[in-house]
Structures are given as C-alpha cells and as structure tokens.
C-alpha cells in the first residue's frame, strides 16, 4: 500500500514545543510521511518574551511552486500557525489545485480569550477564507469566538456553543471546538455535517496551561483521520493521547513554558494505531 503523506504547514519554534516540532514526530510515529513547510522560524513560541521571528513567506511560495511543478499530491494538508494574511492567500491558492487532499485547518491565532501577539485584529476574517475551503476546522474556544465575532466566555452553555458552531459550519462542513472547560473536565465538541453539535470527548481538567496541547491534539487527529479512522473515533483517540501527555507532564513545573513532554508518550501512539 502506498504510504500516506500529510503536508504540514506551520511554524518552527526552536524552543518551547509547538507547531512543526510537535507535528513532525507525532505524524511520523503514526507511520505517515510528514512533508513539512515552515511558515516562520522563531527562537521560541510567542509566549516567551523577546522571541525572534524570521518570516519565510517567499520560501513558502517557492516550495509550493516546486511541489506543483513536480505534480506532488498529498492525502492531507494540515495547516496551523500562518504568520500573515499573505500566507493565508498562498495556502488558499495551493489548496485550489489539490482537490485530492483532506483539508484540515487549525486556525491558530489565540488562547485564553485573546489573539496571540503579532496578529492583526482583522486576521480572523482572513482565516475564515481558509475555513471556507476546509473539510475540518478545529479552533479552540478562543479561536472559535474570534472567528465568529462572539464574546469569549470561559464556561459557555451548550446553546452558546451551538450558535458558534452553526456560524462555523457556514464555512466548513465539519467543526471541532476544543478546550471547553467544565467543572472537572475539558470537553471537545464536534459537529459533523448536518448532525447536531455533540460533546465528543472529555479529559480531566488540570487547571494549568501546558504549551503545545493544541498542537499535540491537532497533529494526532490529522494523523488518525489521514489513516482513514472515523471522525468521532479520531477525536476520542486524539483527546486520549493528549490527556496521556498532560498527565505525564503534570508534575514538571517548567512545562508551562517548555510544553508537553509528549516525546516520552509517543510509544502509546503505536498501541492506539
Ligand atoms: O501552539 C500554538 C502556537 C504556534 N506557533 C507559535 C505560537 C503558538 C502559541 O503560542 O506562539 C509561534
């Protein structure tokens, strides 16, 4: 059987695990080829003060043109952190020529109710154009609120989430909203096509932030979906693996900055395949 491949479009932050430094090992561990395209080179993720940032927009264009000149195809195109509106446009143009690919968009732009530093206020409008050509979008709650111009509330009611997901399904058929905090748990909600929004998976709430959690979830989910696993099963498995990484990291005080110790959990992924 031909090996599956995912084109991962995301930044590389050298330190503080996130983005491609998470996607590459996770997707490789699932036996899938990870074709990586950096959108920027950072010394560390943007929560670290004083991070350096080198834009790679020109090289993105060159790389994607090269792939198209070779007629390369991808089972999945998974996008994460795109540094600018120009990059959104480049990705949109590339996707237009790749009807064969499952398009998964993690609209990375914020957390805790706020846009990450470095993004302009109107960035969510551009990201919506990418959602519009995606098969699956998976914002966290903050990003879902930013995309739909809805005020952020930490503990939303189901009807609030339904309103948000209804707006998002005007853009993408399938929507996954992550990081919805409940009393003792964190829930992942999903809406598949015309079906109702449902709570699809939960994990135990540990009231601390672990950098890279969203990227671990998104990379694992993209891998399972590309392997052909069912939508809901993929969400449940990705949530389970993310929870394993969180439990494993929970006692490490540095992890708030340096991120999840997912590397030491990769062997669990073999068992989950
Ligand atoms: O984990 C999302 C993410 C990706 N890339 C960069 C980030 C963040 C979150 O802070 O800073 C550069």
UniProtKB/TrEMBL annotation:
One example GO MF annotation: pyridoxal kinase activity
InterPro entries in alphabetical order: PM/HMP-P_kinase-1 (IPR013749), PyrdxlKinase (IPR004625), Ribokinase-like (IPR029056)
EC annotation from Swiss-Prot or TrEMBL: 2.7.1.35
Annotated Pyridoxamine kinase/Phosphomethylpyrimidine kinase domain residues: 73-250
Keyword Kinase: yes
Membrane-spanning residues: 20-42
One BP term from GO: pyridoxal 5'-phosphate salvage
A GO cellular-component term linked to this record: cytosol
SUPFAM superfamilies attached to this UniProt entry: Ribokinase-like
Keywords: ATP-binding, Kinase, Membrane, Nucleotide-binding, Transferase, Transmembrane, Transmembrane helix
Top-level EC class as recorded in UniProt: transferase
Pfam assignment, any one: Phos_pyr_kin
Protein name: pyridoxal kinase
Origin species: Ruminococcus bovis
Lineage start: Bacteria, Bacillati, Bacillota, Clostridia, Eubacteriales
